[in-house]
Each structure stands twice: as C-alpha cells, then as structure tokens.
Amino acid sequence: MSETPDRHSADSSDNRLAADMEKVDPAADPGLAEALEQERAREADEDRWQDAFHRIISGGWAVSLGAILLAVLAGSLMIIVTDEAVQQASGYFFSRPSDTFAAVGEAVGGAYSALFQGAVYNFQAETFAGAIRPLTQTLTNATPLIAAGLGVAIAFRAGLLNIGGQGQMLMSAAAAGWVGFGVTGLPFPLHLILALVAGILAGALWAGIAGLLKARTGAHEVIVTIMLNYVAFYLLSYFLATPGLMQAPGSANPKTPPTPESAQLPPLLGERYNLHWGFILALIAVAVVWWILNRSAVGFSYRAVGQNPRAARVAGIDVSRSTVSVMLVAGALVGLAGVTQVLGTVTTGFGADIDAGIGFDAITVALLGNSNPIGVLGAGILFGGFKAGGSAMQAAEGIPIEIVLVVQSLIVLFIAAPPLVRAIFRLPQPGSKPKKKRSQAARKEVAA
Amino acid sequence: MTAPTVDGATTGAPDAPRTVSTISWKTPIALAVVLALYALLMLLAPREGSARFALSTPTDFFQIPVYVIPGMGTAWVCAAVAAALLVVSVLATRDGRRTPLWVTSVYAAALLFGFLAWAAAGSPRDLSVVGLLGGAVALSVPLVYGSLSGVIGERSGTINIAIESQLLAGAFTAAVVGSLTNSPWAGLVAAMIAAALVGLVLAVFTITYRVNQIIVGVVLNVLVIGLTSFFYSLVLVPNTQTLNSTTRFERLPIPFLERIPVIGPVLFDQTIVVYLMPVVVFLVWYGLFRTRWGLRLRAVGEHPRAADTVGIEVLRTRYRALLIAGAVGGMGGAFYTVVSINQFNREMTAGAGFIALAAMIFGKWNPIRAALAGLLFGFATNLQNVLSVVGSPVPSQFMLMLPYIVTLFAVAGLVGRSRPPAALARPYTKE
C-alpha cells in the first residue's frame, strides 16, 4: 500500500482499492476494471457523505446540540423531583407505575410547552399579532444580551476576561438615565443620541479603568472588573438614595424618575410590542464587531495579542495600548446593553438592579457563541428566549425562573468540555477517522 | 526522591540569587493620595463636638470609663502622625529601600482612628469598640474560610472563582441538614461535603477536561445560585419548619478569658466555628509550608512538569487540593445558617465569595496574610454598621465600597506585588 503514496492520499482504504486495481490488467479484463472503477467512484461518493456526517457529529454543532440536550434533561429532572403530582404518583409507583410516568410527562411537557409558548409562538392567542408577541419579547430580552455578549466576546478574543459587565452596565445606565431625565428641553432625536452617547462612554470608561490598570500595573483584569462591579453597584445605590442626584423627586424609593419620551428608543413594530430600536442597534453592533475583528488592523492586533502577547509584542504591536483599547470597546458594547435597558426596555425609572444579571449572562452568551459575533447573536437570542419563556413558565406552571439559570450554566459547562459531551453521546472524537466497511466488500468482489 | 531538585523547583525563591531592586514610588504616592483625600474630607466637612468611645462591657473584670475625646482635634493629630509616616516612606524610597511594613500599618491605623473620631464626633451615643471588633470577627468568618479555600486551590494551580458558590452551597446544605437532624454539627459536616462537591465539579472540568478555570468558576457560581434559589422557592419555603429552621451553634464563652475587657467579648465569647478559624488557618499554613503534602501541592502549582518529573502525580494532587479547598470553603458557608441566622435565604452570601477572593489576593496567596485580609475586610463591613448606629455622616454605600477599593489599590501594586503561583490557570497535560 505504501508503493503508491504519490497517487493516493493517506486514506488507507483508497490505497487498498488502488492496489487491487493495479493487480488487474485492464487489457485482459476490461469488464472487471470498469466495475472496479464504478465501485471506486461510488465509494468516494459515499466517503464524502460519511466524511460530512462524521464532521457534523464530531464538530462543534453536535456538541452544542448535545450540551443543550443534556442541560434540558437536567432541568427536566429538577422539575420532576419537585413536582407534587409526580411525588404523589411515585408514592404508589410499584402498584401503578403508569401514573408516575403520566405525571412526569405532564410536568415536563407542561413546563417546556409553557417555555416554548412564552418564548416563540403562543398557540392560544386569538390573532397572529398576539401569537408572535412572545417572539418579540424574546428579541427584546436578547437585545442587551447580544450587546453585552459582544463586549465580553471581543475582550475574550484579545485574551481578556471581562467579568465586569454588571458594573459597566450600571454605570452606562446611570449616565444614560441621568442625561435622559436630567437634561430637559432637547428635541427627540438629539436627546436620545446624547443619552446614548453618554451611556456608551460611561461603560467604555468604566471598563477602561480595568484596561488601564491591567496595562500599567499588570493587575489581573478579572479581579479588577469584579471589584469595579461592586464599586459601581454601591456608587449607583448612593446616587439613587440621594435626593437631588438620581432619586425621583418626591419619592423615598431608590429609583430614578422615568425616561422622557424624547430620550426613548422608539418601538420597532408599533406600540403594541415591547421591541424597540435597541435591537437594530444590537444588530449593527454585531456587524461592527465582525468588521473590527475580521477586517480591521485594530481587530488583528486584538486577536494577535489574544493568541500570544509575546509574539504580538515582537511583531511590533503595542500590547498595552491594545489592552486599553479593547477594554474601551468592550465597555462601550456592554454600555450599549445598559443604554438599551434604560432608554428602551425599562423606561419607567430604574433601580440598582437594572443590570438584571445581564453582565454575567453575557459571559455565558459569549462562550456559547464561541466569541464570534454571529454566534453571539444566536446565543443572545436563545438566552433571550429562555428568559421570556422562563417568566411564562413561572407564571403558568409555578416553576421558579431560576431553573433557567441552571439550564444556561449547564449548557455552557458542557459546551466548554466537548470531550465530556462526546463521551456521553458516544460521538467520535475529532481527528479520528470514520470507520470504513465498504472496502472489505470491494476486496471480496475482486477476489471472486 | 531527590530533595534538592524539588526544593529548587518549588519553594518559589528563584529571586534569591539576583536581587534587582527597582525604586518604586508607588507606595509614597499612594500614601500621599490617601492622606490628601483624608485632609480634604476633614476640611470640607468639619464636625463639632467630641467622640465617645466605649471600651467595656458590664461583665468585665474591671470597668474602663467611656473615653471622650475632641473629634476634630484627634482627627488632625492623626493626620499629622500619618504625614510624618509619609515623610519616612518618601525618605526610604529615595534611599532605594522599600517602605517598611510598620510604617504602612501605623499609617493605616492612625488614619482609621482619626476617621473614627471624626465620624463619631458630636454623637450622643457611645461608639462601642467591642461591638466594632466583635462584629468584625463574626463578619470575617466566611471571608477567612473562603480565602483559605482560594489559597489551597490556587497554590495547586487552579483559580477558584467559585468560592462564592462553595459558600452558598455550604449555607444551603447546612440549613437543610441542620434542620433535619437538629444538629449544627451535622449541618457543618454536610456543608463541607456539599462545598467539596462543588470543588469536585470544578476539578473535573478544569483538570480533566482542561476548560478555562475562570469560566468554570463563573458558571459554577451561576449554577449554584440557580440550584439553591430553585429548591429554596419550591422546597424550602413550603416546608420552613422541617427543612429550613436549623439549630444554631451556641456561643461558648471561655471562662475567665471572656471577662478581660475588650479582648474577652471580642475573642473569647464566640461560637465553635469562630474558635476553629485560627486553628484551620494554622493547619493550612502548616500543611502548605511544613509538610510533604504542601510541598508537593505547591510544586504542582508552580512547575507541574518538574513535579511530574520527580514522580508527583500532578492531576491527583490538584484534585485532592480542590476537594480540601471546597471543604474549608464549606465551613465558611455553614457560618451563614448554623451560626449567624438559623435559616437559608436566596443568594444570602451576597458576594462574600468575591471579597474572600480579594482577601486571598490581598494576602498574597499566603494563608495567614489572607486570613488577616479577611479580618480587615470584615472590619470594613462592620465599620459601616457601627457608624450608622452612631449616626455617621459618611453614606453607608461608600463604607460598603471600601473593601473593593482597597483591593483595587492592592492589586494595582500599593501593597507590594501580588505574585500568583506560576502555573495558575494552566491545565497540565502529561506528555
């Protein structure tokens, strides 16, 4: 088999077949040669399919699907063990096991159907407009997740882990909110743009602190961003609790006044849906980040630093500057998430919980999206759907929305460990060769 | 086993032969900035009246009268002391020496005392020093245990962002098991097991599957918050009597010692979990720096390949370290439910795990220093409580912010350079 390395690739079965062919003299037996030629073409064709299939089941998509399946299974298990009907039925499991299974099916089926109807399409709605309402809610929830997810993802590509989404969102929300209700007399688009810019700048600066400390002193960005989260939280709490700063006049609650109409992101599909233009901004952000990462010199330097800071320095890239600038960009993106919250989703005034855990969800979104902008878009929409569906599930079935946290974190854990998922589903490991069975048959034919 | 090889690779003293001392002005600059801010505060918001410090409790051997000192006068004297120490630091730096530790310590103490005098000035209520210190000890318990958990894990080469989830898992399990068995001891042990399980998950994903350690930590935090909140609302809330009202550890006053003024009530009238704290700190320190186990553990965290070469099982050592670290963290978690209050609440650890992480870094990955940093952060948190009793002019949010700001300064290089173990965050693959 090794005598024909130049004509055939390393694929051993190909070689075997070729060797068989060489044994046959075409002039002596043209029929057999032709049959072999056909057999070989057919096998190559099948190989292609088999290869493609193999690539799919050993590739990232299969792992992602497997991870989601495992996480959903774990979620189902949690629903089953806490469901009262299941507990009652399992009390007499051995006399009538079918009752238990029916109860399990009802609990899990009810939960996931509520999740689906709350996230995608509501079958019970009278009109089409009502039926797609959940979908628009999913996209509304996805808006800040996509923006903040991009912020985490771009930092991640530069080798930095931005855990500071919470702080960056809080500061950007504070700035945008303050411009929103503090500045009066500006007409609609101008006021909105000013608030947008203020919020995005605040997010960028807050993340920039972490970038600067990392670049100047070598302080680990994870620690710095975590600490900045708490500083931002208490700072905003102070602003909110102080009359004259951000507290709504005449109120004792730590809450801001509502965002005026002139600074609001207008609704995207009419007043009846919550979806606002923030979603379009998030889509633009996806495109911009894609362009930065794949087409710009800055993005190249980010990726170079992320891959190997030493090599990047040798190649003449200013690693410190790149660190600061990527954190500024990341903060701006997370800032966009905070801005869309206060100018689009929560316009009735906000408290110190305006980040709603999005800063941390963004990390999981970025991981699920493999730190690539298109992936982040998909992951953001998926998690936005979980959020919308989770609330519906809580309302309809009384299942606490925290189950969504569990499912999300399990998805990310499993996706981060492909060998584990492959082992559980017995998927082939990447780099292994698909098993061939056809060549045996071909050889037998030749022998006969 | 060839001891010299191991020693050379592990004790982390490669800087001994070549002493490169760079003159860093970081410390004097930081001290000057803090002093300037302090003086600015005193100038802009002067306060009338005197501060009252109460040192005694009624059960003490002898009573110390309430000290009444002029608020602003004391504050400015303290500022002068701090200024003198700043000069010492500047001179030391000019001579190319490091600022001695006592200078920074006395400086911090002087400014703290001045700040207290300023904050308590004019208040009719006594500022209870016992309350301040005693509360600080109690609040620092989860921070100290958490930071020890971090130290053990990170010395073996695994970043432990999941301290928060270990505390939370410990608190939850201690509440449930403590309620079921009516025994706080069972709760404590169960908390240790639960937190060790969190450590095991961290180990499986970071060591066996070599997933980014920070990612696993962050995700584990979310996972445990989700799990505990889910079961809290569905299982614990409807069954509060049976599942979520545990017996607590009683205070164990130590005879005689508890009646020493100030020290007695602060240190010798606590629960067993608090008494265990110095013991565990010592054990971890002794284990890490004086035993074969600790030497191997640190070897694995500094240079796994070298450790592997001399026959240390890198992966097994790391697994064991994370399990032990989890158990220690669980003790801190148990504090919430079997010492502090007798039931579990949603997300009750409220970020203590991250302060513990900060304490570990502040303490330069050394168990004793980390524990001291934990005490300091506990003190900062309690300072806020005490000052709000006295009616302090400082908004509580700024006091609550303090540990985080201190940590920011610390990681940015105020308190020397924090050097993590060399192989931290690097999974090990045997070749």
TrEMBL record, chain B:
It comes from the Bacteria. The keyword Protein transport does not apply. The chain crosses the membrane at residues 28-46, 66-88, 100-121, 127-145, 157-179, 185-207, 214-235, 272-289, 321-342, 348-365, 372-392, 398-416. This is ABC transporter permease. PANTHER family: GUANOSINE ABC TRANSPORTER PERMEASE PROTEIN NUPQ, SUGAR ABC TRANSPORTER INTEGRAL MEMBRANE PROTEIN-RELATED. It is a multi-pass membrane protein. CDD domains: TM_PBP1_transp_TpRbsC_like. Keywords: Cell membrane, Membrane, Transmembrane, Transmembrane helix.
